[in-house]
Amino acid sequence: MEFSVAQGDIAAQSADALVNAAGTSLRMGSGVAGALRRGANGPIDEEAVSNGPVDLGGVAVTDAYDLDAEYVIHAAAMPHDGDGRATEASIREATRNALERADDLGCVSLVVPVLGTGAAGFDFETGAELVCETIRDHEPTTLDDVRVIAYAEGEYETLRRVAAEL
Questions:
Q1: Are 77 and 109 in contact (CB under 8 A)?
Q2: How would DSSP label each residue in 89-131?
Q3: How far is CA 158 from CA 114, 126, 129, 130, 163, in A?
Q4: Residue 82 confidence (pLDDT) above 80
């Protein structure tokens, strides 16, 4: 499917669903999870944790509270045990499961960060390739507007280049 790239704070995006770069415990700490937790201005962390733990690559859905979305899809690309590092397989599976869950929920629009990077330790450029390829290969039932987002300018430039090369 076609998708676009964006730069900015995922918590400031407007979409039917926003994807959280989660760990298997679904505990919302820093990075994307922290931004969404702060923006939600509600018990999103407690609701997320009550749906976990999930398997590596698994997803859970919560209300988006004060975020400009209906749902937050928590996609577990990193384990919250062992070395805490994401893998190629976990990034692909978490991305694929987030897309499928968004379709199951009837979402038209979705914003996805580059899962598995940052605290999960996976190289950003390679992670961007995996996320973008998985979205490209997805056959949506309801999704029409999928945006992959990067916060920092340098990461956005990398993401833009990766997406253009697909």
A1: no
A2: HHHHHHHHHHHHHHHHTT-SEEEEE-TT-GGG---HHHHHHHH
A3: 11, 10, 10, 13, 9
A4: no
Do 1 and 146 contact (CB within 8 A), yes or no? yes
Q: What is the token pair recorded at 30?
A: 């820093």
Tell me the β-bridge partners of 71.
17, 63
Secondary structure (3-state) at 55: coil
Residues paired with residue 20 on neighbouring β-strands, in sequence order: 74
Segment holding 56, helix H or strand E: none
Alpha-helical segments (H) within the chain? 31-40, 44-50, 88-104, 124-137, 153-165
The CA-to-CA distance between both ends of the chain, in Å, stands at: 11
- 113-160 pLDDT, tens digit per residue, is 999 998 878 899 999 999 999 999 999 999 999 999 999 999 999 999
The CA distance from 127 to 106, in Å, is 26
Q: What is the mean pLDDT of the chain?
A: 96
Supply the pTM of this predicted model.
0.97
| Structural contact between residues 89 and 103, judged by C-beta atoms closer than 8 angstroms | no
- Confidence at 23, pLDDT banded by 50, 70, 90: very high
